[in-house]
Amino acid sequence: MAESLQYSLTEIQIATNNFSVDNKIGEGGFGHVYKGVLGNGQEVAAKRLSRSSGQGAEEFKNEILVVAKLQHRNLVRLLGFCLEGEEKILIYEFVPNKSLDYFLFGEFETRYVFPFFMSFLFFLLILCTFLQIFPWKIVPKKNNI
Q1: What are the extents of the domains in the chain?
Q2: What is the pTM of this model?
Q3: Which SUPFAM superfamilies match (predicted)?
Q4: Band (74; pLDDT cuts 50, 70, 90)
Q5: What is the CATH number of domain 3-93?
């Protein structure tokens, strides 16, 4: 495990104002996400895994290795982690609250082209299903029992 990716619990507590409710930007089944600012001024999102998630230290380390290898320009970048005592925290780059299509296509395409494109794909799906080009069925067959 690369030491440069590891943050201390103290660093993260300072960055998130001790996991202040004011800095909480999300929550899910695996824990809460807090916005923070590191000592160097970089904005981060700290995902604090709940103790009840059932994930042990070994599984946490494996997840870090997998996520670190999945770096892509359209994915939020993993900056590091904290593993101290019972605390398991992932540190991601902070991305402002906009949808992925805005970042991929920009404002004009997001507002006009992208919805049209998705509608067109949905139309093609219905047409192909109607013409039975693809093997799946929307309506199940009736049983002759």
Answers
A1: 3-93, 98-138
A2: 0.62
A3: Protein kinase-like (PK-like)
A4: low
A5: 3.30.200.20
Residue-wise pLDDT for 78-104, tens only, equals: 888 998 888 889 898 888 766 555 555
Q: How many Cα atoms are found within 13 Å in the side-chain-facing hemisphere of 135?
A: 0
Give every CB contact of residue 78 below 8 A, 6+ residues apart in sequence: 64, 67, 68, 71, 90, 91, 92
pLDDT for position 22: 94
Q: Which amino acid is at 36?
A: G
Residue with tokens 């398991």: 88
3-state secondary structure at position 48? strand
Residues 56/83, Cβ–Cβ less than 8 Å = no
Residue 140 Ramachandran class (φ > 0 left, ψ -120 to 50 alpha, else beta): beta
CA distance 22 to 16: 9
Tokens of 133: 């080009």
**Is residue 141 marked as binding?**
no
Q: Distance from CA of residue 95 to its chain's centroid?
A: 11
Top mean pLDDT of 36-45, 52-61, 77-86, 133-142 is at 36-45
Taking a C-beta distance cutoff of 8 angstroms, is the pair 15, 44 a contact? yes
